[in-house]
Design brief:
single chain; 262 residues; alpha+beta; 2 domains; three-stranded antiparallel beta sheet; 4 helices; 18 strands; 42% strand; elongated
């Protein structure tokens, strides 16, 4: 990085050409390091440019001066990314097809294609065209398979292992790493499973919803509250095809029953 020049609206101008954004400085493609200051208390950025495009490092800083993120670019294409928590612990690293996440205490929580419980047990794992979800004891609870349903058309087939889910649903739908809130898609599995339960056993589904409404994870509580409201609407006469949560048209739901105990 060279000595930075602070951004201003007079000397600097961005111009979009196709998918690229070019930066000009006093009418010429900018070469050097740009400094962009955030609002008061918001930190700042240092960004390398070459011939008007991102090339080199893009550093983002916390207000106290510690590094928040370091992205490396090659001719406007991001080739690597690192992030840190405010306490200095690493948060994320991404290189091409590999990705790692850590908890605030330094515990590895995502090892490339596997999310982990705090114990190190696999929680979620991508294997080829499948995503597998496990209980804390290592039992397969949900399997999603991305498959072709017709020429040029694909769908997701979800296999819900009901006998496992009834034992582990509270832990599986817990956001174990709230500081990585944007990385918590598992709660999207909840409506389809509970709808499948509801179509077979309405009282059991209501019991599960009553438990989940008091769940410690906000997204899970909100999903349970919405589904319970759908149950109440059905009970007062609302017409709804497919139960409390009709699946997406490109989703196929398979509920497997190996054990009816709860």
């Amino acid at each position: 990085m060279s000595k930075p020049i602070i951004f201003n609206d007079v000397d600097f101008h961005f111009r979009d050409v196709g998918s690229l954004s070019y930066l000009k400085y006093k009418g010429e493609p900018f070469c050097g390091t740009l400094q962009i200051n955030g609002d008061s208390g918001k930190g700042y950025e240092l960004i390398d440019y070459h011939n008007g495009v991102l090339h080199g490092h893009r550093l983002t800083f916390y207000p106290d001066g510690n590094v928040l993120a370091d992205k490396r670019y090659d001719q406007a294409h991001c080739i690597s990314q690192k992030e840190w928590y405010s306490n200095g612990q690493p948060k994320k690293e991404r290189y091409a097809a590999t990705e790692y996440f850590w908890d605030t205490d330094g515990t590895l929580v995502k090892d490339n294609l596997r999310w982990l419980y705090k114990s190190g047990q696999p929680l979620e794992e991508q294997v080829h065209n499948q995503i597998l979800y496990f209980s804390l004891q290592g039992e397969l609870a949900v399997k999603m398979v991305h498959t072709k349903s017709a020429p040029n058309r694909y769908c997701n087939v979800f296999y819900y292992y009901d006998h496992v889910l009834r034992k582990c649903f509270e832990e599986l739908f817990t956001n174990h790493y709230p500081q990585l809130d944007e990385q918590f898609p598992r709660q999207q599995l909840l409506p389809d499973w509970l709808n499948a339960v509801y179509l077979e056993n309405q009282e059991l589904a209501k019991s599960l919803l009553d438990t989940l409404i008091n769940h410690p994870t906000q997204q899970t509580r909100e999903t349970a509250a919405r589904l319970k409201n759908n149950v109440l609407n059905l009970e007062i006469g609302e017409k709804r095809d497919g139960g409390i949560h009709p699946p997406h048209p490109n989703h196929i739901i398979v509920k497997l029953n190996f054990d009816t105990r709860f």
